[in-house]
Amino acid sequence: MADFKTHTILGTGVGIGLSCLAVTGNFITLSGSVLAVFLSAVASALPDIDSDSGSPRKFALSALEILCPAILMVSFSKDFSLENLMLSGIAVFFVIRYPLGYLIDKATKHRGVWHSIPMALIASMIVYLVFCRSAFSSRIFFALIFFVCFLSHLILDEICSLKYFGLSVKKSFGTALKFSGSSWLQTVFMYIVIVILGGICLFEQVAGGK
Ligand SMILES: [Zn+2]
How would DSSP label each residue in 110-177? Predict the structure, then answer.
């Protein structure tokens, strides 16, 4: 099994490469590319949020604890007072740190729902939606890079499940790059979430989103 360091090095490397191409092609700004590299590192660590070992889970949750309140405060900066924004940001921080962390511990197991292609899709669509104030090209790029780097984690896990140059496989083979969760209920729930998020993305565009 690849460790946290290997996953983040690979994901960040992919993120740097794609961001350089995107900046060269005027698809995103320079500051957007730096953010994209950070998102790449988060995406490449995120599947192991269900891991028993501390680092990936700590890193992924810490990144969410920083990103989510910041995005919330920027997104609603015109609609609410600074006091209300700060209180909401603090509330989101604590919700991610405690109830969400607890839920992930209790409701998921390693190489379960977080190691799946539908979850990569869900995470990417959430990234697309949370950057609602960014330019359309940036939103697409952030979502795309998140999906690719999330997928890089799953692919690397599968490669590490091969033995003897692919002639034999370990027991863990097939548990990372899959289209289902650890139970049929999780699988159905994931696909319902995909349909709902897909609908919101489409509605947002049709209704005049950027
Ligand atoms: Zn993994």
Answer: TTSTTSSHHHHHHHHHHHHHHTTTS-HHHHHHHHHHHHHHHHHHHHHHHHTTEEGGGTEE-TTTTSSS
- Cα 173 to averaged position of ligand 1 atoms, centre (Å): 12
Question: What is the whole-number distance in angstroms between the Cα of residue 181 and the centre of ligand 1?
Answer: 14
Note the pLDDT tens digit of each residue in 75-86. Answer: 788 888 888 889
Between CA 130 and CA 39 the distance in angstroms is 13
Give the separation between CA 110 and CA 129, rounded to whole angstroms. Answer: 27
Q: What confidence tens digit (pLDDT) does each residue in 146-158 have?
A: 999 999 999 999 9
DSSP helix/strand/coil, 72:
helix
Return the closest-CA partner of residue 128 out of 34, 209, 23.
Answer: 209
What distance in Å separates the CA atoms of residue 137 and residue 182, rounded to the nearest whole number?
35
Compute the distance from residue 52 Cα to the ligand 1 centre, in Å: 11
b/e code 67-80 from CB counts within 10 Å (16+ = b): bbbebbbeeeeeee
Distance 47 CA to ligand 1 centre (A): 6
Identify residues whose C-beta is under 5 A from ligand 1, the ion.
47-48, 157
Q: What does pLDDT average to over the chain?
A: 87
Query: d(Cα 133, Cα 45) in Å, to the nearest integer?
Result: 25
Tell me, what DSSP letter sits at residue 180?
Answer: S
